[in-house]
Design brief:
Radius of gyration: 13 Å
Strand order of the largest sheet: 1-2-3-5-4
Largest sheet: 5 strands, mixed, barrel
CATH topology: OB fold (Dihydrolipoamide Acetyltransferase, E2P)
Strand content: over 45%
Number of domains: 1
Oligomer: single chain
Order of helices and strands: EEHEEE
Number of helices: 1
Length: 102
């Protein structure tokens, strides 16, 4: 894998809200908000995001948990069911973080 700019590498830790053709819509940072407050050891994204290029996308379902190292690639614009246009951060999957017990 090519060397990635470390300033654009983050952790996504959250639940899949929906699979869409472009990738996975993930609500990231849920565990960190509930259990760690502002004490987050890795740069954890705290937002709704689009996660692209996940190797397990076909096997992932809504509400599945993801805990992955990702690379920020820009913005993603989509239209909600109510017709509003939303812009969210877009990240590309790099690798899975090892599972740890909390």
């Amino acid at each position: 894998m090519a060397e990635e700019d470390p300033s654009r590498v983050f952790t996504i830790s959250g639940h899949v809200l929906q699979k869409i053709p472009e990738g996975l819509l993930v609500r990231s940072g849920e565990y960190e908000r509930e259990h760690l407050g502002t004490e987050v050891s890795r740069k954890v994204v705290m937002a709704l995001v689009l996660l692209t290029d996940h190797p397990d996308q076909k096997e992932i379902f809504d509400d599945d948990r993801v805990y992955d190292k990702v690379f920020f690639t820009g913005q993603f614009v989509y239209t909600t069911v109510l017709g509003a246009e939303k812009t969210i951060p877009k990240y590309r999957f790099l690798e899975r973080w090892p599972r740890t017990k909390h």
